[in-house]
Amino acid sequence: MLKDFNAPLKTAKMPIRKTLRKLGTIDIGVVETTPVVWNGRLLRFEWVRNSGWGTTARPVGCYRFVDMTDESALPEFADDHSFGCCYAENGAMFVHGTRGGGGGTILDTFVSRDLVNWETSVALEFPDDISLFNTSVCKGPDRYIMAIEIGGSNPAVGKPFTCVFAESFDLVNWTLLPMDEYSYSRDYYSACPVIRYYDGYYYMIYLESAPHHRWLPYIVRTRDLREFELGLTNPIMYPSPEDKTILFPEKFTDDQRAFIENAIDCNNSDVDLCDWDGKTVILYSWGNQYGKEFLALAEYDGSEEEFLKSFFE
Fold it and tell me: Could you give the residue ranges of the DSSP H alpha helices within the chain?
């Protein structure tokens, strides 16, 4: 449930704050990525889509990590999985994602200490009338929380899409919280969650559909995963010409550069972020929400905690 947001807008004070800076496009046809620091390296977790998305020749999708310092790719894993996320702790990498090409009913967990050899287990199973998409994991004060984007005909979905939540004490064994009580939001499109915890609040960035085929990331926070407070300033970013800046021109052919330059941009979605070298690294997607999608990089000159809190304080 979303708390009343009109009263705070009438009385709150919002000083001038730092701004997010878009750096440019880094890939074509890559979305739903997660930046993560692992053993002192800044990595990007990616879902490598199958050939049906038109960007690879793979018969089924999989996952991989990319070193963001030199854009070198690590070995692929998790064949026939999609819409994943990752979380690193104590030298181990935990990956969670949907079995199948998207819209499945099973979430699997993959665990590795070298990003080559992976142990696999089932994290959660859902009924047939629920479809699974994006996920995100954070560590709270006493447990880990996973935000899960769901669709389908189940009453818990409401108006697709809706975010529900699960808890774990070891990042492997998960329990779904009652979906009729812990969710955001069955009243309107709420997709692509990224969740973090700071000082008593879970902060969640998610995607809203705006009128006339526009898609924008909003931020809310909650203490209990039931009642949510909307950020005083939203959306957190808009489609803009900076999305089309090509960060690594040598990476693309002339045709690819022209494709980027001429693409329709009515969407900033699939935001994810992490702390790195005193700044917040932000990955997001832009494009037309009809299959022409691009991965872009942004940064905030401050910590992840400062960035998330800046929308409320």
Answer: 6-11, 254-261, 304-309
